[in-house]
Design a protein that fits this description.
The protein is of the alpha/beta class. A six-stranded parallel beta sheet has the order 2-1-3-4-5-11. A six-stranded mixed beta sheet has the order 7-6-8-9-10-12, with helices on both faces. α4 packs across α5. The longest helix has 19 residues. It is globular and about 75 Å long.
Length: 385
Amino acid sequence: MIRLILLTDFTEAFAHNLLRGILEYSKEREPWVVCRMPPSYKQSHGIPGVLKWAKKWQADAIIAQFDDDDEVELFRKNGIIALAQDFKSRFSVIPNITSEYKLTGQMAADFFLQKGFRNFAFYGYENVVWSEERCMGFRDRIIEKGFGDNFFEYQKQPLENLWYYESEPLASWIKSLPHPLALMACDDTQGNKIMEVCRVLGIKIPEEIAVLGVDNDEIICSLSDPPLSSVNLNIVKGGYEAQLIERLMRDKEASCEDVVIHPTTITNRLSTDIYSTGDPYILVALKYIHQNLATKITVEDVVRQVPLSRRLLEIHFKQVTGSSIYQYIFNLRMERFSQLLLESSEPIADIAMSVGLSDYKNLARQFKLWKKYTPAEYRKIHRVK
């Protein structure tokens, strides 16, 4: 029986989902005993105090939000496996529970580009690896698509002050931004802050600023007004992969191997439920596509919604979205399909039909080009079970 200390912030959904994954794995073996230790204990007693308690409790392992200057090697010297949940930086001397942060930023950029935005901003914490790399992925994709001159960022919030922030500098920055704007926050907490300030300033969301967070913390997203859209991460799967602890217990000299949490899909709520275009015909076309995604709509069906020829509509549509009408419909269906693969236990063929992907024979090949895995492989990799 493994005795694990989980030293993290349990006010956030990340910690709860991580614990869910750990418990899912332990159910398949023998139950683990988990002590949920608040970060305040480390702040009050330091690493020596945590270590003293861990030895007294006979802990086998600890997963914690360690600070950069914490003497994490002390745990291994005392026979305790230590994993770092990314807090500010990654560690090189112990494994990290980390994520593909740049890919998360790229996903957010693609999401906004598909909606026709041409002005972009990022809001995050200063000197924090997961905020900086999400910004890097977001910014690099925007630059790649030719909109680097329309990118703005603000990363001046210290991570120590999770709930407190200087509203005046942030408000001044927000007021300086062009509209309409697509803004990615480094996490849902920061997205919620942006929306609070926008409400005070009288800035309309999503009409003037569309806001996207990360982690898909349903409580925080629901507290936001309007509800906050967010990038989903397979955190439960990451917790499941904490089985790494068992391997390290068997081989104390094993090399560090990070647990990597992957971004999966984006949950689109009201904070991004808009298409950034002044072209009324393209707006009609986009709304029709999104409202009828599950039906067998064709390009001709879309053309019939507006008083334009197919050629003229295709030209305008590509100018706004960057893709043809057919490709836009296909991409949207594939993204929705990938989301449902993880959220639903229905057969893959049934899920495909529900989003209008009727060519099931070619679906595996097409999906592999899209996500690098077949639908079955993708579901297996990104779901615990």
